[in-house]
Specification:
Layout lengths: L13 H8 L10 H31 L27 E5 L17 H11 L3 E5 H5 L14 E5 L1 H15 L21 H21 L6 E5 L4 E5 L3 E5 L1 H9 L28
Antiparallel strand pairs: 1-6, 2-3, 4-5
């Protein structure tokens, strides 16, 4: 990637940057009048900040129910329990932009090699967790027949990857004919499964993106040769280390085939916000 294409964080004082290039003279020393003006401005800002804080507090105290929209009762601000939280580690990552010159290893023609790359991301995604872990879940899960003391579970990230893979396959129906979907004006009954599955996957991914809401900031930077500002997508993100999540799941891979027709009664208490459709 050329230096013009590289991401440069927009940090630092613009005056310092100008000074480094030698494009501007050193700034003049502030006068006593400017110091007084600055002090007055700081004082006004402090007063306004306190007034705003008091107003916000009064609004919260006056109408708490109007501000509450979450349907999960009590302590909804806390992170819901997941046995995989112990594996979470953060790092700074930069995405591949995905255009020529910055493609990811997954951007290749459909092939057995590409299929394997995708499979390696999540093919261990169905996990076995202990009864103690299952009892702490916000939603009840089922015991695994023949594997006493263990319950079946799946981290949503692996379901998301499965779904995205199916959408990818549907985009190349000549290579994956079983995943050819019907178009708006050409519904084909034999493609019903693929069409409904892909529709489910697209909407599931939509909801997941909205739920996690990555707040990393895409920026615009000046391009000297083009004489215009351009969007820079290869920006820094705060990421959970995916390999750590994979390690967690691999350590809990199912050891027996799961038989969903066997019902096991257990004494795990169902949380108050359990959904009946689980």
């Amino acid at each position: 990637m050329s230096k013009e294409q590289e991401y440069h964080p927009l940090m630092g004082d613009p005056a310092e940057l100008e000074d480094e290039r030698g494009d501007s003279p050193p700034p003049a020393k502030p006068t006593w009048m400017s110091k007084i003006s600055r002090g007055v401005l700081v004082g006004l800002l402090a007063v306004e900040t306190v007034a705003l804080a008091v107003t916000i507090f009064a609004l919260f105290a006056r109408a708490p129910h109007r501000l509450t929209t979450c349907t999960v009762p009590a302590k909804s601000h806390e992170v819901l329990y997941s046995p995989a939280l112990e594996a979470v580690e953060h790092e700074v990552g930069v995405y591949n932009v995905g255009f020529e010159g910055d493609l990811s290893p997954f951007q290749m023609p459909s092939s057995p090699a590409l299929d394997q790359k995708w499979s390696d991301l999540y093919n261990f995604g169905i996990s076995r967790i202990t009864k103690e872990e299952a009892a702490r879940l916000p939603n009840k899960t089922h015991a695994i027949p023949g594997d006493d003391g263990h319950y079946i579970a799946e981290l949503d990230v692996f379901h998301n990857l499965h779904c995205l893979n199916k959408v990818r396959m549907a985009l190349d129906p000549d290579y994956y004919p079983d995943w050819r979907v019907s178009t708006t004006n050409n519904y084909i009954p034999s493609q019903k499964n693929a069409t409904e599955h892909v529709s489910h996957c697209i909407d599931w991914i939509r909801q997941s993106l909205m739920c996690t809401s990555d707040t990393s900031v895409i920026v615009w930077q000046w391009h000297r040769m083009l004489n215009t500002s351009i969007v820079k997508g290869n920006i820094a993100h705060t990421c959970r280390k995916f390999d750590k999540i994979q390690e967690w799941a691999k350590d809990r891979t199912m050891i027996l085939p799961y038989d969903p027709t066997v019902h096991i009664e257990d004494d795990i208490v169902v949380p108050i916000f359990h959904n009946d459709f689980n």
